[in-house]
Amino acid sequence: MSTRPVDEPADRPFALRDYALIADGERGALIDPRGEIAWLCAPAWHSGTVFAGLLGGPGHYRVRPADPWNVWAGSYEDGTLIRVSRWVTADGIVSCREALAVPADAGRVVLLRQIRAVRGESLVDIDLDVRGDYGRHPMTDLHEGGGTWRARSGPLHLRFTGADHARPGPDGVHTRLRLPEGGSHDLVLEIATGPQETPLVPRALWDATERWWKSAVPDCSGTAAPRDARMAYAVLNGLTSTTGGMVAAATTSLPERADTGRDYDYRYAWIRDQCYAGIAVAAHGPHPLLDRAVHFVSDRILEDGADLRPAYTVTGEPPPAERGLPFVGYPGGSDRTGNRAGRQFQLDAFGEALQLFAAAARHGVLDTRAATAATAAAEAVSDRWTQPDAGLWELENRWWTHSRLCCVVGLRDLSREVRTPASADWSRLADRILDDTRSRCLHPDGYWQRAVGDSGPEAALLLPLARGAVPPADPSLALTRSQVTHRLADDGYVYRFRHGDKPLGDAEGAFLLCGFTMALAAHAQGLETDAVRWFERTRSACGPAGLFAEEYDVVQRQLRGNLPQGFVHALLLECSVRLGGAQDAVTTAWR
């Protein structure tokens, strides 16, 4: 592990639950309780960092009360990723409204911050030091004119307004702002791939951003958790590029377990995660995120066919090879960029893609190009379903049960929703895969086991079972769910599988995706009270900002892994939609 240069002191990091996200689809920033932008890559998700304090790296942008004796809190404006940080000091209250301006430009990030003295006069410190390409490029040619600071950071062009009286120094610019009670002050930071001259007018940028979020996130009334569902929509929108690609998370190298090497770069678009998001949105309605998911997945399948990669950049390229970064890393983790999963074969991705295409067809939004991609995906399943694959969890190549059942669901859904001469063939292929998988992977006790040669339970199997791999009354669904409940659940949270004889929680955290799939499986069985119980318990595992990571440490009540995890928010949305009526019925019964 590398160490941070001694001339780049970094503030200590916080527990992951304490960070908030602002994002515009092309990149995202994490904000810590001190008012620091602790993480931002520019111009794109997989670009180098400009602010890397999260991993102990250089670059910072801080807006914080001058009085260190303060208590932090904050919240999102409902249905948006507009964040309002708030500090109560010894003498008053100060807030900072923050967002990445939208609609976004792939080559230009605009970060908006609006400081307000809520109660009492406020003194606020402002510090900016942009360090592009993982800290390799300090700010150069720093100068101010007409109220705008300009600089370069390697190939990036910077503009910064609202800090007219700042002092330049070796670590960027600094100023202290004094605001009377009720006063407000705007800061605008622009980072672009080329020189920009468009005026940076705060009110116009805020107005456009507010309009965009209002149009992007539907109301979600009638779902089981309307506010959380809107938050899920906001996160999914924030993680989804105009190309349609949705990154798995905004960050890299945040540890799933301390000092185990299980920390990865999730700033890429996984086909599976993209499909989960599209299917969740389709459960609610034909909203634009469904079209974008279909577009991105169609392009990847039409380009790569049966050699579809599990993950891509949001612009459709393979993820780069893994390499280290010159940072100390988040405590307990390493520091890496790139991802090896882009070279794996994961059969379940084709099954999820078929389910996505069927969901689009159900809403009448499957165009000719996407229909062609659906046929290509079905042909890929026909050609490759007997081959071992790395599976959902990207492990060794085996005959994973989950991968086959996902394809069964996808083929059946497609045969029902897309009527072509091949529809009957898709249905017959689904039956053949199910029969073969049943003969090889159904345990003698009647539940579905993980894989050929592995009789253990697997929580991920609940999702294809809930979506119709077998009829709801098939005993294997109830028996599999019972196995997961008794062997993979603890204190209302669900783990994905057992690691040898280790107690649950010793090897890894509970997987929040699996908690939501447990809720969907109970719902499929008609067990609405159980479904709501699993849903409510799992959705409690977020931080104060309402963001979910991939894992949850049940004992320590802490988030683990990269943040925020898109597919967890997608499954929360799907559960909220599907359990909407169930929640009302259960609430009435409790009364």
Using the alpha-carbon principal axes, give the shape: globular
Structural class by SSE content: alpha+beta
Give the strand order of the largest sheet, numbering strands 1, 2, ... along the chain. 6-7-8-9-16-13-12-11
Helix content: 25-40%
Low-confidence stretches: 1-9, 585-591
> How would you characterize the largest beta sheet?
8 strands, antiparallel
What does this structure look like?
- The structure is a single chain.
- By secondary structure, this protein is α+β, with helices and mostly antiparallel strands.
- It contains 15 helices and 25 strands.
- The chain has helices spanning 132-135, 202-216, 226-239, 271-284, 288-304, 348-362, 368-384, 401-417, 423-441, 462-466, 475-487, 512-524, 528-539, 566-578, 580-590; strands at 20-23, 28-31, 37-41, 49-51, 60-65, 70-76, 83-89, 93-100, 108-119, 122-129, 139-145, 148-153, 156-161, 167-169, 172-179, 184-192, 269-270, 311-312, 323-324, 336-337, 489-490, 493-494, 510-511, 551-553, 558-560.
- The strands form 7 sheets. It has an 8-stranded antiparallel β-sheet with strand order 6-7-8-9-16-13-12-11, covered by helices on one side. The protein has a 4-stranded antiparallel β-sheet with strand order 1-2-3-4.
- Helix 4 packs antiparallel against helix 5 (288-304) and helix 5 (288-304) crosses helix 6 (348-362).
- The radius of gyration is 24 Å and the shape is globular.
- The relative contact order is 0.11.
